[in-house]
Amino acid sequence: MKILVCISKTPDTTAKIAFTDNNTKFDTNGVQWIINPYDEWYSLVRAIELKEADASTVIHLVNVGSADADPIIRKALALGGDEAIRVNADSQDSFYIASQIAEVAKQGGYDLIFTGKETIDYNGSSIGGMLAELLDLPYVSLATKFELSGSKATISREIEGGEEICEADLPLVVSCQKGVAEQRIPNMRGIMAARTKPLKVVEPVAADALTTVASFGLPPAKAGVKLVDPENVDELVRLLHEEAKAI
Questions:
Q1: 40-54, 183-197, 206-220, range with greatest mean pLDDT
Q2: Which of 128, 145, 165, 177 has the fewest CB atoms found within 10 Å of its own CB?
Q3: 3-class state of residue 118 by DSSP
Q4: Computed over its alpha carbons, how large is the radius of gyration of the chain?
Q5: What is the model's pLDDT at position 245?
Q6: Would you tell me how many other CB atoms lie within 10 Å of the CB of residue 77?
Q7: Superfamily of domain 2-219
Q8: Which of 79, 48, 82 is nearest to 189 (CA)?
Q9: Nearest alpha-carbon partner for 215 in 17, 23, 81, 5
């Protein structure tokens, strides 16, 4: 079985967020980059678990990005990917990215494609659905459990008020979230092996970007804490009526 795991480079959750060029570009100065947690902790680790259950399984990684994504790709290889493909393009447009991954998938003949449910920077949650449509494959989103028996997958996903269990035949596309697998840390053997694992760079295919960024904006600064004397009930009531509801 061949599995393709989509990985993305995102800012560390502790990174200070700022914008440049009249708030149209993210300021990357001083930013620490990581593998998108939904891609690393859940989709990649579940693929590794499937390989551990069937040694004939091959895991390929795909990333759409420039050369500065190579360190996070190497980390993913250290976790357990067999080889990686980086499409040499820098875009934040979901359709453009999905189009590039679809081309890689068509060339590779994969049985299963995993994505994280979303990236933690844009939270778009759109790549998986677009990818499945471009490949004309079934798509199950927000998986919390994934089991495989032969060529049939059983997938659990959370829905309003309960859980939905889906069955689908391979090949298919699945987006993963918390519950599918548990986070792993690369060991020294994996880190050393990752240095020599193949990382193939390919040029992008022609595809349209359907969105542009008009501007970014930071959320409003949090208001300071107001302390109210426990004896001053009237003031507390006034603050709750006039100010708390506006926060």
A1: 40-54
A2: 165
A3: coil
A4: 21
A5: 61
A6: 24
A7: HUPs (3.40.50.620)
A8: 79
A9: 23
Residue type, 195: R
Q: What residues does each domain of the chain span?
A: 2-219
Question: What is the predicted pLDDT for the residue at 17?
Answer: 87
Q: Write out the two tokens for 13.
A: 């959750």
33-35 and 139-149 beta bridge pairing: unpaired
Q: What is the C-alpha separation between 143 and 237, in angstroms, rounded?
A: 45
Q: What is the pLDDT of residues 83-132, one digit of tens each?
A: 999 999 999 899 999 999 999 999 999 999 999 999 999 899 999 999 99
Cis peptide before 171 (omega within 30 of 0): yes
Tokens of 220: 């409003």
Quote the tokens at residue 47.
């693929």
For 45, phi then psi, to 5°, come to -65, -35
* For the chain, the helix, strand and coil percentages under 3-state DSSP, each to the nearest 5: 30, 30, 40
